Amino acid sequence: MKPVYLTDKPSPFALNEALVAREQDTLLRRRTPTEGGGGARLRVAGREYLNFSANDYLGLGSHEAIKAAFKTGVDRYGAGAGASPLVTGYNRAHQQLEEEIAYWLGLEAVLLFNCGFSANQAVLKALLGKEHLLWQDRLNHASLQEMGSQLPCKMRRFAHNDMEALEGQLEPGRGLIVSEGVFSMDGDQGPWGELSRLAAQSHNWLMIDDAHGLGVLGPEGRGTLAAQGVDPAGVHIQMGTFGKALGVAGAFVGGSRALVDYLVNFARHYVYSTHMPAAQACAVSQSITLVRTADESRAHLQQLITRFRQGAGQLGWTLGASETPIQPLLVGESRAALALSERLRERGLWVGAIRPPTVPAGTARLRITLSAAHSEQDVDCLLDGLGMRAEGLRHV
Ligand SMILES: *Cc1c(COP(=O)(O)O)cnc(C)c1O
């Protein structure tokens, strides 16, 4: 078959104009195919790099026990779910995983989704009608911002972690407040004690997206709420993902039995989508077993974070106010962030530059992520690569 080229035909969509404009602003994105590696390593075009870009915070993505559980699951249940969950795609392995998560996090009921993006969108879309209000942090994930702006409900965005601003916007009993456990580009945490106080006082519902806190923070890796000592009963909806610290893929939404039953009936992303493979649920179950007893990994990770922050500070770099494995190193201009990332790459260090529109204009950064799979020597290599800030900028 010959490929079909549409470029020289009249088109209702200005694809090339949009791409050229992005290129001119140094914002054009390109993908790089990787060749695996696992743990703290990454192979690209035959060369091995130290990986400081992944969200595999506990190094579980290539853990033998999880790979074995995935394989056994494939042997037992096949490669695919075969149907959406309300047809025949809901397997006992999914049911078991839901029960394990509910027990782990102290939730009444849990529902699995193929990914966090669709879980977030499903919840907002299923709950919020035009009579409702949605309040969300300005730095919330794209999946939340985007669905919020497309829904018929009114959306108010409050300044990042600004509880006074939120309190000023709240109206009693009108809808849902949503924020994140750990913010994905900044690594700082939402003030969950205060959020749950404001939600309770105003009789609104509260939802946490804990994609980056789950597995990393708190006793047994139960996440941001556990780490901050916040009663999960005051947070009506918890969303977490399996593709970050848990090292696999997929997501869940948890809360009351009524919430889950409602989503099973009204969440279109759930009802009309082929369920995640049962084998994947088996892998996630195994991962949770490991995560719950991974206190040593979490302690090692915390030591690496401290080591990196001290070292980068001594070199004169500005870091975000983050105590989590997400360590933004602020550079400013997109071009400078790209050049620094390129310089590190030449030294065998893979660190992604994050540019607008993912982050606000003028705050381009390196998003450095640490993992329990890194050693202290790995972190020292990164610090060597970052050199002195002044020297860094001369080379940029
Ligand atoms: C990664 C992420 C998601 C999306 O989860 P996926 O499973 O990757 O689709 C949602 N929210 C936040 C905060 C995230 O970082």
From TrEMBL:
- Main EC class of this protein? transferase
Q: Where is the signal peptide?
A: none
Upper classification of the source organism reads: Bacteria, Pseudomonadati, Pseudomonadota, Gammaproteobacteria, Aeromonadales
Annotated family? Belongs to the class-II pyridoxal-phosphate-dependent aminotransferase family. BioF subfamily.
**Protein's gene:** bioF
* An example Gene Ontology molecular-function term: 8-amino-7-oxononanoate synthase activity
Please state what the protein is called: 8-amino-7-oxononanoate synthase
Q: Which Pfam families match?
A: Aminotran_1_2
Q: Which CDD domains match?
A: KBL_like (cd06454)
The cofactors it requires, by name, are: pyridoxal 5'-phosphate
